[in-house]
């Protein structure tokens, strides 16, 4: 099933990406790097990124009982030394088995359970921001709403959602009363109007921040950046680096903030994984494959915060792979 | 501003695509074809497809008064013989000026005002289906709803919408009462559960159907096919060809239907333009650039209905172009 020519025996690092899905650009930054051998797994052979890995395995759904054992077998058989999970849905089951992966010689590029719980539950994220003096929109749970005192607009989203699904701007009480029932397990936030930024942060294995690259979200489609550009705004860089250092995360973080018309920064979300737009940070000069390889070898990495190409635009479009039915992996 | 090397003087056909936006794959099928010179225009230099045309012009918004004059100037100066508009928002202003484009030696690849009105207003589409004996979900306007007699689930969408914005499945009266107010200018349809197909149809300049390629919508993102495959189902091919012939359209149509669990076909929508997934039909063997060039030269084209590669999969992913700020067109 080897798809891209590369001799595994010659590689310095064998990486396993789980739930590769449509993460083709990210995968290619790794396959293009000399010395890295890339294995991908996904529940579906219709995952386009499957066709861009050096090797691909179709695996059970991450909710299935046997999932972790299948991954562990792949790690042992293939000599994987780093597992990078790309889908939040599998983070918890992987965390529960971190020790087993490490016993198999494979590091899990994933923060602690505490950090994941802060990031995945957006009400926990709000509490984390508040407790650490980080400016964030006022946020309440449904039972805390006092309809008579509520001012609009508001923003509602699921406590545990990914992307833009079930996220709505709310302009009146009628909408609020409806969406409180319609959105699964919602939180309600003050709506902040302004310029949105996503910041790609990379932390080392000890929680030290190595790189912080803000990108302006000029246009978003389906929750993912569609047009954007890097912005070397030191205020955002410093504020985000501080947030990340308080968190003590491992590996990639994707932190969202908004700057309103009064120039206030509001931090909104922390995603404890590679964001869809991280290819821009890599293209702007932050060599993630290289940095991860060094981290894994135990080499001390000097932080390179702010060291990236400013005002680099990313313009995204849909591309396709075509396969005959009998060519599917 | 020439971006891709091609000698315009040597070309047999000079095509202008308006609102090129993210239609990179479609554009590349044309630029890859010998003898076709491709000019693109868009309101934004952040349109990724701008960087894939032989020549690109940034133009005013299609709602601006001067838009048509700018396009006409480009047609005259560049010797454009075919204008292919890609955004429905500009269809009406172009139709009102069809004669001026033809006087400038440029054919407009767009159906008549009557056809566009049937397609763009989804209640008109329903009436067209009904009047022509084409099976379609029962569809009503808000004022026709009798809440006491209503059965669920239903589907609500804007009468004039594109893509999946403001389209909701409705499961109870509370949702119906809310979304009737929330969705702009809505229609309410019987919800049909089943396998969805999009059919790429190409008509010649006289309304004869040349090609009909059904593709199963295996996964949809943001209203556009994300995973799919061609399906040589003769029942769908014949039924869709009949619909298209009754319509008397010009150029590309994108027709949506659903086959329910009782194997009934329901026709849902007709989009009078290139669909986002038409690259699959082209890749499956229907050479749109070639067929359009022949049509324009006045050559009679024999219909080639059903002549395409069956069970060809399209697996789509997001790709990026990177540009420094000073490299933007």
From TrEMBL, chains A, B:
Task: Say yes or no: keyword Ligase present.
Answer: yes
Q: Name one GO molecular function term.
A: metal ion binding
Short name of one Pfam family: ATP-grasp_3
Q: Which UniProt keywords apply?
A: ATP-binding, Ligase, Nucleotide-binding
| Domain ATP-grasp positions | 126-297
Q: Where is the signal peptide?
A: none
Task: Read off the InterPro entries from this record.
Answer: ATP-dep_AA_Ligase, ATP-grasp, ATP-grasp_PylC-type, ATP_grasp_subdomain_1, PylC_N
- Taking the record's annotation, the residue ranges forming a coiled coil are none
Q: What is this protein called?
A: ATP-grasp domain-containing protein
């Amino acid at each position: 099933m080897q798809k891209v020519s590369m001799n595994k025996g010659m590689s310095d690092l064998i990486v396993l990406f789980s739930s590769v899905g449509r993460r083709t650009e990210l995968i290619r930054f790794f396959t293009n790097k000399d010395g890295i051998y890339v294995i991908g797994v996904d529940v579906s052979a219709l995952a386009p990124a499957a066709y861009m890995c050096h090797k691909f395995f179709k695996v059970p759904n991450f909710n299935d009982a046997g999932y972790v054992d299948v991954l562990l077998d792949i790690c042992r058989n293939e000599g994987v030394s780093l597992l990078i999970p790309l889908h939040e849905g599998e983070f918890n089951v992987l965390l529960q088995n971190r020790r087993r992966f490490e016993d198999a010689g494979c590091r899990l590029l994933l923060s602690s359970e505490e950090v994941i719980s802060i990031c995945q539950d957006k009400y926990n994220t709000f509490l984390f921001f508040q407790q650490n003096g980080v400016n964030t929109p006022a946020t309440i749970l449904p039972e805390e709403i006092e309809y008579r005192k509520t001012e609009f607009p508001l923003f509602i989203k699921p406590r545990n959602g990914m992307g833009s699904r079930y996220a709505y701007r709310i302009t009146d009480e009628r909408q609020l009363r409806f969406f409180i029932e319609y959105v699964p397990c919602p939180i309600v936030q003050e709506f902040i109007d302004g310029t949105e930024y996503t910041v790609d942060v990379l932390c080392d294995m000890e929680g030290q921040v190595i790189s912080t690259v803000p990108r302006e979200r000029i246009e978003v489609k389906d929750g993912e950046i569609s047009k954007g550009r890097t912005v070397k705004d030191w205020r955002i860089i410093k504020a985000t680096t501080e947030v990340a250092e308080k968190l003590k995360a491992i590996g990639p973080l994707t932190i969202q903030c908004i700057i309103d018309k009064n120039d206030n920064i509001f931090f909104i979300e922390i995603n404890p994984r590679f964001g869809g737009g991280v290819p821009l940070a890599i293209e702007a000069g932050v060599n993630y494959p290289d940095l991860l390889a060094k981290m894994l070898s135990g080499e001390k990495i000097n932080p390179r915060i702010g060291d990236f190409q400013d005002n680099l635009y990313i313009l995204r479009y849909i591309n396709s792979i075509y396969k005959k039915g009998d060519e599917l992996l």
